[in-house]
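thought: fold this chain, then report.
action: predict
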Amino acid sequence: MVRAAVLPAVGAPLEIAEIDLPAPGPGQVRVRLAAAGVCHSDLSLSDGTMRVPVPAVLGHEGAGTVVSVGEGVTGIVPGAAVVLNWAPSCGRCHACSLGEVWLCADALTGAGNVYARRTSDGSDLHPGLNVAAFAEETVVAAGCVLPAPDGIPLTDAALLGCAVLTGYGAVHHSAAVRPGETVAVFGAGGVGLAALQAARIAGASRIVGVDVSSAKESLARAAGATDFVVASDTTAREIRALTGRQGVDVAVECVGRAVTIRAAWDSTRRGGRTTVVGIGGKDQQVTFNALEIFHWGRTLAGCVYGNCDPARDLPVLAEHVREGRLDVGMLVTERIGLEGIPGAFENMVAGKGGRAVVVL
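observation:
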């Protein structure tokens, strides 16, 4: 038996419960978690913004140590330190054939499986986003683990698996920021702070952090922001004033709200690029008129998992960490136990702090 944070139903409070994990089957790996980040996607799953089979154990950003492996698993041994990969690519679908593994059609099929049972009543449990990291241990497909980088504590490595890959990839892959360009990052949570650091690494000349909370300014500047704007109805105007009334070359939206996406678009220069990372609900409608699309010549792009290939990009991030260019620890503003996850959700809704990390 292990302890886990169980979502009994969409919209219901999380429950800390004991669960029974089976031994890893063919092609599976059992992992003892060292840490798991609390991501906004977990909140979106719990409140129904994104669909998830329930009851479920959420958590998709984690790192730990391999306990045992199932039949047919090669290259992964007990005792190995690993980072969880919540979106393993199948290598066979159309997106994978194009090299766009972040759009793999089969990446989340494992989330519909029954992977464990609740000890108290034997009820089935699903692994939220494949890996069920809000638990002391989990059982995942072998494709859901990647070697943890050497020289990086597992409590930091956990964040590489989602927040850092997503924020870094949004800047380097989706927006393709070039040296000397100007960048605005909307939202200074875990992903936004990673994006700010990525913009600095890319050589951006001016980096504007934007958040609804003025308390985030120090975090944003520590991550690389040269300027900070408190979000309001005049955000785009303020950003344009900082850039000679032109607007930034690139805006990265890490919130997922219609008003923020629109502000990000409005803050970019003519011919600029807006990358949307935040996951919004179906009720968040963004509108543009046909004339402005022609006149401004801007590009608006979605971004899934930072458009990253984790197997390719994780070693790159690790090198940035080891060389001191990327500070994963500064993203973390709270270290909690499993019982602290509901409070971390509340802080997200209130716009407080960066990343909360469950230390197990």
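thought: worth noting. The CA atoms of residues 218 and 326 lie 17 Å apart.
final: tokens above.
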